[in-house]
Every structure is written in C-alpha cells, then in structure tokens.
Amino acid sequence: MHLRQTKHIPSPSAGHSIIALSVLFFLLASYAVLFSAFLPLSGIPLLDVLAQDTHYKYFVLLIIPTSSYFVIANWVGWQYYQNS
Predict the structure, then answer these.
(1) Is 4 a member of any domain?
(2) Do 41 and 30 fall within a single domain?
(3) pLDDT beyond 60 at 1
(4) Which of 6, 20, 25, 32 has the fewest CB atoms inside 10 Å of its own CB, making it the most exposed?
(5) Could you tell me if 23 and 48 lie in one domain?
C-alpha cells in the first residue's frame, strides 16, 4: 500500500524562526561556556545557574546537537529501510 505524498512548502516565517532560535541558542551557549567566566553574574536565574555550574552546563548545551544528530541518522536509516 503506497501512501500519496503531498508536497508541502514551508513558509518563510518557519525558516526565520529556525534561524532566530539558532542564533538565540548560540548566544546562550556562548555565554554559558565562554563569557560567564569573565563576566559578573547577570541576575537572570537561568544564566546564573549555567554560569556557576562546572559540569552540567556542557551536558545541557550538547544534548541539542546530539539529539539532532540522532534524529537525522534515524531518519536516514529509515529512508534506507523503506527504499530497499
């Protein structure tokens, strides 16, 4: 049984949202890993927790690219399975 595939073109606002969230994540990660050692505490609870932590801040930041890699690798594997 074949499912009919429909073509769906994402809107430009979806692309802009992805870029904005990527930039926001990059800035947050840069502050947590690099700049927090040189700057005083910001007064924002989430940023202060990340700045004071010495171990789990890396886990929080690396879980996103690791999860993305897993999802992409899983999707590629599924495509190989479907087309074999």
Answers:
(1) no
(2) yes
(3) no
(4) 6
(5) yes
